[in-house]
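ok trying this again, last paste got cut off
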Amino acid sequence: MSFLNSVLKIFVGDKSKQDVKKITPTVKLITSLDENVSILSNDELRNKTEDFKSLINESTKTLNKQIDKLESEVEINQDFDKKEDLYNEIDKLKDEIYLLTEKTLNEILPEAYAVIKETAKRFKNNKQIKVKANNFDREISATRDYVNLDNNHAVWNNSWDAAGKPITWDMVHYDVQLIGGIAMHQGKIAEMQTGEGKTLVATLPVYLNALSGKGVHLVTVNDYLAKRDSAWMAPIYEFHGLSVDCIDYYKPNSEERKKAYQADITFGTNNEFGFDYLRDNMANSPGDLVQRPHHYAIVDEVDSVLVDDARTPLIISGATPKGDIHEFNELKPKIESIVSVQRKYLTSLLSESKKMILDGDEEEGSFNLLRVYRGIPKNKALIKYLSEEGVKQLLQKTENFYMQDNNREMPKIDKELYYVIDEKNNQIDLTDKGIEFLSGKDDPNFFIMPEIGIEVSKIESQNFEPKKEASLKEILYRDFGIKSERIHTLSQLLKAYALFEKDTQYVVMENKVMIVDEQTGRIMDGRRYSDGLHQAIEAKENVKIEAATQTFATITLQNYFRMYKKLSGMTGTAVTEAGELWEIYKLDVVEIPTNRPIARDDKEDLIYKTKREKYNGVIDEVTKLSKQGRPILIGTTSVEISEVLGKMLGIRNVPHNILNAKLHKKEADIVSQAGNPGQVTIATNMAGRGTDIKLSDEVKKNGGLAIIGTERHDSRRVDRQLRGRAGRQGDPGSSQFYVSLEDNLMRLFGSDKIAKLMDRMGLEEGEVIQHSMITKSIERAQKKVEENNFGIRKRLLEYDDVMSAQREVIYKRRYNALFGDRLKVDIANMIYDTTEIIVENNKLENDYKNFEFELIRYFSFKTDISNEQFSSMSSEEITDKIYNSALKHYLEKIQESAVLAFPVIKNVYETQKDKFKRIVVPFTDGIKTLQVITDLEKAYNSKGEQLVKDFEKNISLAIIDDSWKTHLRKMDELKQSVQLAVHEQKDPLLIYKFESFELFKGMIDQVNKDILSFLFKGEIPKENSNNISEARSKKKTALQTSKEEIPNMDELSARNRAAGNNQANNRERVETIIRDQPKIGRNDKVFIKNIKSGESKQVKFKQAEPLILKGEWVIFNKN
């Protein structure tokens, strides 16, 4: 591939050079304006911002007038179809305004960038800048120490506090930084090396895009950076009258946070931006909203947010009934027992296999060795043995033999195992022996899932009386639910014990299990593994098991950031993920040249056979470098390794600091010392991103910072981030990675050629090899992992896109209800859609009586269409006639309700208006009661119409929210259950899409019916003001925000495989006994019935199969 790339570069050219070449003319244009801008007075420089804003407003003036005109037409137009067309026209005009604004911004870009560059220069060269004071200066002088008023003038100082750190402005944009600023304005990612000033570069596109007044979001990975950067860069923007704020200073849903979003430029963390979006879509009044429409965002460390965290869901949840009831503690002894039994058996078997291979019995010895490898792949004795000459090749040869013909022979290997571990895919499967062990002799069916469809058919065939039949079915469902939850709990516990290691994937601090970010080594506070895995680890570590919660709202970061009209980013490492960033986000990566050439010496990797030899080599090199007066940064991949190296350095009396997830609070102090002569800093990957190590002249003379990597990470980006700590702004430095054949990457994905080469060379203990060929081989292994991870993320995105499309529909409906301006159109559409469903379903069955019943049930009126007309008219004709009648009936009812309610409102207003501002009015449909909050004065002035509007809004929001919560739970269950389809050679994704569409369609239909039923039946209180009371602040439900680590689809499939196998085995045994009809073909049509609702329909068997598998539908004979 590298040869092909070289050939392509010869003919096509280097992409990074082409990108820079396209931008260079604009850079020259900006620099050519330097002289003109430099002669402007301070006031003239500031006035440029108003000139730019005027140009933008002028370009969109005509379209804004058209929108105002259309909105006036909407108010007076009573035709709902026409209203909908007008709203669509308004939306199109808003899209045109965005395009026109972008065109204007591109035209003013050179001058705008020149203005910001000149502003930075004046702040650097002057301790104070004096200008005529305007209202904005006077306003911020009260809260900003760097702005002082002097009569009619404002004095801006060039020193201020940036999140607790005093700074004096000393930066001016380089030409290469202008390239980065242009790339980001174009909606691209600027990849810039460490020390090249990404924060300063961002000032250019942030200023330019803030001129439109639509808001710019600058997104960071943690709140420290958000607060620091907002304070650090604020004076540059504020000097030009642009407001700046940071959402992380304020509490969610507060007025202060709402004001922060109204600022021209808003800083914040990726999590808080996402959570605020979810909170806004749980709001009950427009005044509760904090965010504006998503206009433009720049994401700092964009690869971390949009790649590493892309599939991480942000979740707002609340208490769920019986959420603290689980079986983790009860099942834990069983798992501890099975893990212990397997470990003991395989440890003994490993010793036997070593002896057999040594004695020449390679066939039996390698058979046993493969069994050990599939049962305890992370065993240290096994890893050490596999590093010996020829052993790994023997294992691979044996594994290839048993894997041929789609693993046909592998059951022979797994026969004596209790469970099998697939380390590459992070999966674990129980074997039949394992299930038998866990079930025990007393209850062999302890983990066997009942086959719901067949068991229901058995009950129905007995002709019991209805009550007894319902009771038996309830017992069956309860048994199914208990066993399903038990198998799930069991599989998560097994994964916790066999796959997750303390101080590697997580740490235990303050009696809590806290996840460690594999990319940075930092603790991810507040994040939990999903799907019960975190609870399983808590049970394993004997800490408090947190109660389960119910999801109220959720979104992944990749879907949140795809909502922005324009998105761009900046990072030091994005090229390796360029394909993914383009395919998912349509973000192109532009490599920005460095201001000075990189002087860092990146050495070829050193390869050892064992970890022990590798660590000894690291310690020898660190001791030597420290004596030379060079600071050393040692990068490790886990807390455990950092502590091991710390002990080894301690034995040699080498002073050092350790920085890992356990000691993260000392990060600032440790990093500040990391550039001192001879200083040794051992750090997990948390030192590889966002850490700036500055060097003294003495250190530079000694050779600069030395980077020592103790292991190659799965991702090349993480290694590049670590390397990037040295060689900042042309500083000298070096980087060296130490690798062993026992490292995870080499064991799982490394080339066999390396192991064979080391065997042929007959290397003695401690000897090392170093060659560019081997370094490239390691990078190829990393590419394998990256491609695998991209495949997982891309597949998960397809699942996520289904939820995203549904969320978009629901949140749009919710938004319309919240503001009310388009709600009447939505209600009209609900009436039409519900009418269409009623007509089509009953027309199909030719059931006139049910047709009449459903019209009364949902619309509260009797149709004038006779039985004969119902039979003779087409569905379209009946639908149109009923829709017009129902809509007319509804509008008359609403108008009448306002008239009837007005005397009550009038009475309360005239007697108690000083006492009440907002009032609560109870509405009822005869079954449920809804408390509607309305503004007393508005309800009085509108003669009751405002009350009716609030009634429509309240009932719509209440039903949509309740249905959406239930739907989220069903979608979670569906995502898990469809993984069983892999056993029948079906694609779970296709079934998920089909089933989720049916679920969503059913939910929308039910939401429409429930809303309409209440609206048509809702009774408004008449001449009785006793039921009306003052509206008090609603007590807020206790909500939790969290980010969950979610398993990939392969892991979900594996997790369900045990249950699926049990189900499949059980099904086979039962079918041989009860089948009394011919086998059904996949394309044969069958009748199925919903066992809960009684609904029946005819579908092809291949469509019915996934529904039957879920246990909610059964096949029945209509004859």
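PB: full thing came through this time. Residues 772-819 form the longest helix (48 residues).
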